[in-house]
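Researcher: Please predict.
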Amino acid sequence: MDKSQNKKYIFLIDVDGTLVKDGTKMINSKIVEEIKFLKSKGHKFVIATGRVLNDVTSIKDVEIFDYYAVLMGDYIFDSKTLNILQSLEYLSKDTVKKLATYLDDNNIYWSYKTAIAQKSYNKPTGIAKKFFAEECSKEEYENDLEKGKIQQILTNGYVDKSAQKNFCELNFFEMPQNYTDISHKKSSKANVVKYFKEHFKNYTIVAIGDSQNDLPMLTTADISIAMGNACEDIKKSVKMVTSDIKDNGLINAFNMLKC
């Protein structure tokens, strides 16, 4: 018997460009059925994303996943109860203030993320909606800032490399559609891998992704798989490469493991 048939996997799956096409809120029905089948065999499934909880739960059929790891794994929720299983808060309010000042001075649109929601208080509605940001008051922003709830910044556009050097504690992940995810260097999808390795020791951790912010997860998982639509740097860093998201990439990744 093939020993792979006896393995139990925990799949850590990125959202945009891996599970769903960028900006969409519906999982392909074939993927839904395949995940249900694999769960019946004892495998577990985790959303691993830079998105916030409200964005994740708005995706149709996402409840088939067992866990939601949001904000790069800073927070992990049980999908059934939405109880918090992990909460890591790294970004200080002084850093947020300094970064916000730089972005405003350079006319770079930005929104901020708490574990639950993505918000924007002072920018054009059209741009805010593009990034799924909820409009809020400045008072709400200042309250979130004071309570240390802000853990990630999203910008419309890239931050100049020379300016990035003034924020040595931050990671700037430049994403394909001309935006940047900014988070503390300790905030990483590797934290998702670490959590599930510690709490599910009898499982093999499989990470599947396509973007730069997936690299920490891909390089620390037991098995790493890049989507066919990933850039070449990502593909060179993993053990396996599946097909493009438009060509059943996720399902083909499952099939590669013969699970």
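Model: Residues 109 and 127 are 8 Å apart (CA to CA).
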